[in-house]
Amino acid sequence: MIRRAVIAAATAAALLLGSSPASAACPSAWSTRLRCVEGDIESVWLDENFMTMLDGWIDPCRRPGPHERFGFIYYSQRPGAPEPQGYVFLPRLRAYEGERTKFVGTIDPAVEPLNGPLVAVCLAYGPGKVIDCVQPLWLPEDADPRPPVPPLAVLRAAPVVVEEPDGTDPNCATCV
Q1: Which DSSP helix (H) or strand (E) runs through 152?
Q2: What is the mean pLDDT of residues 23-40?
Q3: Residue 17 has pLDDT above 80, yes or no
Q4: Cα(30)–Cα(93) distance, rounded to whole angstroms?
Q5: Segments of 21-156 assigned E as strands
Q6: What whole-number distance in Å separates Cα of residue 87 and Cα of residue 120?
């Protein structure tokens, strides 16, 4: 009887701790319970300051929870590395605005020098949950020949580091 009470109390504590708003909003992780999400990066262009801009939409198949977020994974690939590495910057994750959410943003130019050549920026709803990808646009005189965007299957399987904004431009309010 005492053993059942201890097991029940431990289970209840684990459930309460695991589902508390504080743990759901934990800034050290990005996860999702969404299983079906559609989306598209509709256009990519250089703005008047020669920054790469993008816009599009994301639409989960069910109403997202209050702590569900989507964002962009920056994939870089160091020379000689067998696969790309993804980076997500937690403060830049975005809340859904109902079911279909439109977005516009800037690709952060400060990311590339720290993480190797940028091969893709992808719309995602969780690590490995890649929907659509683009290659950043650069001025012709600044650009090295870049490999094509890797296939989505490669990017979905690539490791993703979820981190604070070290190495990004803190003054870029529109960065994705």
Answers
A1: helix 152-157
A2: 70
A3: no
A4: 9
A5: 37-46, 52-60, 69-76, 85-89, 94-95, 101-106, 118-124, 130-134
A6: 11
